[in-house]
């Protein structure tokens, strides 16, 4: 996410009366954007990544890893450095920004990457430089880990009560003696006023008041705490039927208790931190014009589930191994602010005004394609703000985009600042961004901002003050949080409001940012090598979509088309969550993704037609076949990308080899040749001598897991794990071979030779060859662990 505004956030009751006028102004603003920027052409195809990470404290004495709540302090220092560098007229290598958790940090390159293939080679070194930048600001026992979930967030001190054989399940239980194990440094009690969580203290929320308000307002709008539940992984000794709990007794009588109908077999979570407190990897691409942005958006949508599965990295939730590997649905549930009526659980009163019944949380998958020719794939009924759609279309916004925006505008703005309620709609996109950036979808269509009257002022930052934009140019659309930028002197609250029509016409000319799309489904990886590989893969995918590929035999350029009925993309997203999805699931995908010339799409969309006809859907389904991630990514897309690179040329052999190494990694992950981070984590836990095959990830196991990830991810922490004594004690070796095989060593690991070099390290003896089974069907036996450990210890000490 980008900037945070300064101001006084309104509580829910105070915010509600403003919702309609904020939406009206937001519409005016986005209409002004379309008037100002629809004709933009030839913007450079710049792009950039965002990586989120968490601060973890390693307590060697107590053998525990805890979330460090000091990220704000670290950010202050990094942002002060940024200011110093900018003051000398230079561009910082990287930008660091706050995120939802007080233990989280987000980083991006200091300025976007350039449009050339060679620019892809900057990505990994830039990511490595970011880790070097932050390392000077961390305490000796602090680590920045780029992990999707922190395994022990909200874990109980005494976990898992099993039900007696044949006993009636009493449902979730609370008990006075039940406690949450400490998992933050410093420790804070749970049950805060914002989240009402049984498991997580409000103190782990970023100190900027926006985040607390957002947490509380979501809960209040919904009328209850959020409910996040994931199926537990059933291991050989997992108490079954599994009944998570008992939970601590809540001091919040109205919405503090877990839902009585929570089924057995689930890991229960109850607050925003279990979703927005997780990390991800995102990439944003600027298109040369709006038409190109629409094409990129539509073509990338079908890839979001498959690539999430390939990047899977989230197998542990609240201290248990789960039967899923990915984060998306949990984040959806963690910010689901829909009322019971909106969720369709209760009817609207017959004598009152009708309201929306909405199929998905505001954090969800994309609901509609944007190109006119994609309308035949739009088979999901779209709930729209009808007056908004009419206004957008009347203003000339193309029908599919008007529908998309009108769909976003069914939501309420969640956090409003008293001082920023009135905006200059000719120069600000604040209110539009407020709605846009709390509609968190797998792809985001990012219109350019209106140019502000004055350049953004940079306020020296703390997590709790205004932040400059990464580009210094205007509003960021925010990741986790709607983050309107302070780029205008706030108008006085009682300033006369301009007439809407007049304001729509009186917009400011376009600013320097163009039409962009953001790919948002990737899970963050342990190392810079892996994050660079996935980021570069999406960048090459974007080029393939935009430029097509020249056929080596005929010399003609051919184009890809991945579109499919959008309801099937949703089905794929469900499948992508499942444990080991890359190995066991099939995804709907085009049998043939190459089209020659125009794909014969239907003509301009009509405004009435919001659903593809049954004939359209049947025809679109005929193009599909259920395929493995390996077939889609490794056998279809990557060969096309290689053809694209062959035709593009211009790379020295070693440069091409670097890109090929990234493609090899992504292909290997998709096809199961290498393990996903999720599979690696699961294996690590199951091979740990303290693991009792009961799905429970104890503090001790978590400590060793965090040490292992720290050692893998940072050259300066290579010594974290494993010591010969660790290995002799039977701990699983690092086994990076399974993550990326024997590919030439990644940049980040290159200085990590003592441990990662198969000749000399503990990895060598225990690393499975890359052709061996990748997911353990059962944990390695104690004898094989002991044998591996002895050999590893011998190797390590030689
Ligand atoms: P978000 O809206 O997702 O919070 P930003 O829009 O601030 O984030 O930035 C997301 C990414 O976009 C960063 O990697 C940044 O480098 C990149 N970026 C910034 N400007 C451009 C641009 N003009 N074109 C493409 N990418 C850009
Ligand atoms: Mg973010
Ligand atoms: Mg983002």
UniProtKB/TrEMBL annotation:
**Associated pathway:** Sulfur metabolism; glutathione biosynthesis; glutathione from L-cysteine and L-glutamate: step 1/2
SUPFAM superfamilies referenced in this protein's UniProt entry, alphabetically:
Glutamine synthetase/guanido kinase (SSF55931)
Report the EC number(s), separated by commas if there are several: 6.3.2.2
GO MF entries: ATP binding; glutamate-cysteine ligase activity
UniProt xrefs under InterPro entries? GCS, Gln_synth/guanido_kin_cat_dom
Q: Which reaction does it catalyse?
A: L-cysteine + L-glutamate + ATP = gamma-L-glutamyl-L-cysteine + ADP + phosphate + H(+)
UniProt GO BP: glutathione biosynthetic process
Renumbered to this chain, the signal peptide range is none
Keyword annotations for this protein, in alphabetical order, are: ATP-binding, Glutathione biosynthesis, Ligase, Nucleotide-binding
GO CC annotations on file: glutamate-cysteine ligase complex
Mind telling me which PANTHER family this protein's record contains? GLUTAMATE CYSTEINE LIGASE, GLUTAMATE--CYSTEINE LIGASE CATALYTIC SUBUNIT
Q: Which family does it belong to?
A: Belongs to the glutamate--cysteine ligase type 3 family.
Q: What is this protein called?
A: Glutamate--cysteine ligase
């Amino acid at each position: 996410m980008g900037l945070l505004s300064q101001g006084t956030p309104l509580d829910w009751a105070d915010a509600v009366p403003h919702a309609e006028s904020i939406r009206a102004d937001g519409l005016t603003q986005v209409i002004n954007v379309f008037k100002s920027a629809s004709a933009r052409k030839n913007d450079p195809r710049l792009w950039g990544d965002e990586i989120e990470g968490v601060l973890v404290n390693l307590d060697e004495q107590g053998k525990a890893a805890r979330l460090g709540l000091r990220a704000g302090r670290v950010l202050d220092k990094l942002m002060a450095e940024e200011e110093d560098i900018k003051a000398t007229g230079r561009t910082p290598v990287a930008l660091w920004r706050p995120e939802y958790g007080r233990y989280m940090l987000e980083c991006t390159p200091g300025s976007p990457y350039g449009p050339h293939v060679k620019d892809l080679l900057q990505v990994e070194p830039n990511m490595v430089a970011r880790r070097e930048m932050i390392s000077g600001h961390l305490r000796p026992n602090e680590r920045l880990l780029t992990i999707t979930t922190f395994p022990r967030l909200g874990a109980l001190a005494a976990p898992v009560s099993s039900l007696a054989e044949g006993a009636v399940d009493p449902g979730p239980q609370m008990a006075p003696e039940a406690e949450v194990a400490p998992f933050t440094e410093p420790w804070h009690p749970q049950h805060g006023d914002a989240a009402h969580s049984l498991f997580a203290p409000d103190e782990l929320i970023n100190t900027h008041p926006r985040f607390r308000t957002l947490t509380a307002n979501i809960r209040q709008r919904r009328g209850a705490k959020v409910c996040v539940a994931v199926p537990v992984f059933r291991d050989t000794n997992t108490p079954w039927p599994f009944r998570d709990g008992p939970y601590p007794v809540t001091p919040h009588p109205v919405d503090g208790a877990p839902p009585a109908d929570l089924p057995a077999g689930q890991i229960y979570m109850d607050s925003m931190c279990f979703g927005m407190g997780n990390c991800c990897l995102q990439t944003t691409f600027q298109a040369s014009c709006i038409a190109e942005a629409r094409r990129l958006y539509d073509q990338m949508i079908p890839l979001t589930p498959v690539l999430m599965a390939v990047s899977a990295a989230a197998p542990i939730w609240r201290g248990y191994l789960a039967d899923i590997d990915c984060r998306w649905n949990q984040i959806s549930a963690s910010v689901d602010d829909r009322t019971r009526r909106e969720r369709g659980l209760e009817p609207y009163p017959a004598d009152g005004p009708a309201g929306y019944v909405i199929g998905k949380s505001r954090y969800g998958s994309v609901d509609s394609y944007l190109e006119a020719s994609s309308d035949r794939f739009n088979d999901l009924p779209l709930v729209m703000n009808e007056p908004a759609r009419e206004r957008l279309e009347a203003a000339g916004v193309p029908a599919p985009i008007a529908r998309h925006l009108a769909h976003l505008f069914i939501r309420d703005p969640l956090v409003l600042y008293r001082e920023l309620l009135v905006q200059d709609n000719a120069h600000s996109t604040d209110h539009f961004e407020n709605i846009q950036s709390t509609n968190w979808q797998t792809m985001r269509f990012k219109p350019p901002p209106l140019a502000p009257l004055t350049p953004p002022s940079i306020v020296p930052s703390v997590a709790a003050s205004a932040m400059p934009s990464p580009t210094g140019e205007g509003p960021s659309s925010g990741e986790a949080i709607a983050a309107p930028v302070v780029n205008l002197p706030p108008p006085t609250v009682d300033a006369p409001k301009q007439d809407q029509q007049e304001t729509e016409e009186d917009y400011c000319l376009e600013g320097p940012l163009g039409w962009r799309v953001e790919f948002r489904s990737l899970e963050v990886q342990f190392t810079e090598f892996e994050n660079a590989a996935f980021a570069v893969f999406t960048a090459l995918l974007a080029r393939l979509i935009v430029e097509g590929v020249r056929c080596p035999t005929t010399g003609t350029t051919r184009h890809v088309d991945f579109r499919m009925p959008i309801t099937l993309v949703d089905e794929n997203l469900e499948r992508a969550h499942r444990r080991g999805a890359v190995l066991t699931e099939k995804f709907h995908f085009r049998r043939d993704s190459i089209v020659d010339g125009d794909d014969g799409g239907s003509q301009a969309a009509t405004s009435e037609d919001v659903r593809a006809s049954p004939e359209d859907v049947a025809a679109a389904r005929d193009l599909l076949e259920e395929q493995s991630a390996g077939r889609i990514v490794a056998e279809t897309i990557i060969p096309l990308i290689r053809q694209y690179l062959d035709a593009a040329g211009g790379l020295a052999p070693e440069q091409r080899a670097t890109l090929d190494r990234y493609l090899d990694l992504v292909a290997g992950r998709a096809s199961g040749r290498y393990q996903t981070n999720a599979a690696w984590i699961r294996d690590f836990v199951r091979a740990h001598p303290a693991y009792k095959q009961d799905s429970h990830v104890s503090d001790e196991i978590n400590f060793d897991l965090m040490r292992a990830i720290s050692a893998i991810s940072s050259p300066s922490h290579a010594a974290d794990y494993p010591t010969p004594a660790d290995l002799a004690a039977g701990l699983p070796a690092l086994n990076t071979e399974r993550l990326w095989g024997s590919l030439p060593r990644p940049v980040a690991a290159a200085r990590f030779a003592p441990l990662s070099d198969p000749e000399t390290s503990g990895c060598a003896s225990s690393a499975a060859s890359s052709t061996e089974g990748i997911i353990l069907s059962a944990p390695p036996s104690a004898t094989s662990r002991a044998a591996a450990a002895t050999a590893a210890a011998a190797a390590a000490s030689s």
